[in-house]
Amino acid sequence: MNLFGRVGVSLSKSVVDKCLELGINFFDTAEGYKNSEKVLGKALLGRRQDAVVATKFGFRDGIGTPPYSAQEIDEAVTRSLQNLQTTYLDILQVHFPSFIRDNVEAVTELERQVSLGRIRYYGFSNFAPNRIKAFVEAGGKPVVNQVH
């Protein structure tokens, strides 16, 4: 939980509690949003099944990372699972198209993550139409493109 700075676990838990009480169950985070994955994971302890969690990879501590290989995607999923204290991610998004070096390799790895049950769905953030088309032509089945 991070809105222009670090927010503590106590306040974040209160916000999550109120959201769930009101029927708001979708939470969007990213490994690059400072400590938000860890804080959200703590806030959802014991009620993960009540939430839909989307996270993104490609930035860590606000720093862009180089293009991702299959191994790097696997490592990013592992980090997010650990940070969020969960066994699965509802949606994993590629933060920027430049983080994918090879669409076929990325699609293959994302589909493997789905088959393993580590992610349910995947998608993008900030992809232009031509990048989406190329990813789909490589066999990808994205469910979302979050545009900033």
UniProtKB/TrEMBL annotation:
Listed A to Z, the keywords are:
Oxidoreductase
Give the coiled coil ranges: none
Q: Name one Pfam family in it.
A: Aldo_ket_red
Q: Which InterPro entries match?
A: AKR (IPR020471), AKR_Detox_Biosynth (IPR050523), NAD(P)_OxRdtase_dom_sf (IPR036812), NADP_OxRdtase_dom (IPR023210)
- Report the GO molecular function annotations: oxidoreductase activity
Using the record's annotation, list all stretches that form the NADP-dependent oxidoreductase domain: 13-147
Question: Which PANTHER family does the protein's record reference?
Answer: NAD(P)-LINKED OXIDOREDUCTASE SUPERFAMILY PROTEIN, NADH-SPECIFIC METHYLGLYOXAL REDUCTASE-RELATED
Question: Per the similarity annotation, which family is this?
Answer: Belongs to the aldo/keto reductase family. Aldo/keto reductase 2 subfamily.
User: What name appears for this protein in its UniProt entry?
Assistant: NADP-dependent oxidoreductase domain-containing protein
- This protein's species is Biomphalaria glabrata
Name of encoding gene? 106051044
